[in-house]
Predict the structure of Fur family ferric uptake transcriptional regulator.
Amino acid sequence: MTSDFEAQLRAVSLRVTRPRLAVLAALRDHRHVDTETVITLVREELPSVSHQAVYDVLRALTDAGLVRRIQPAGATARYESRVGDNHHHVVCRSCGAIADVDCTVGHSPCLTASDDAGFRVDEAEVVFWGTCPDCSAENSANEPPVGRK
Ligand SMILES: [Zn+2]
Ligand SMILES: [Zn+2]
């Protein structure tokens, strides 16, 4: 697998470094993780890596298009390595859990804006908000019984 990551880095003219490989590996195994989680995962492999180094790697990989950064309003930025398919996300208002949602209409990137105001649209980013199954289950468990008479 490591050689795949090396090829990915070379394809975008980024130097192959251990922190970059470790970040790519972390994002392969964990989707939609925030920076703190990435740092924790990378440190399992490279204990001495600094916060700043991981920030820099995430920025370089995001700029190069190998990593996608998602930042739902009011939430911390998350990163994922599923790029290039313009999938969307559904976010839980309660716990911040994020799941992938594939393009629903036609193929990516959902470019049929009803009125594009003259812009040449090349990307659509849709965030669906709701309550995840865990939180829904918890909410209904905590609800007081409706027994008003
Ligand atoms: Zn939730
Ligand atoms: Zn995603």
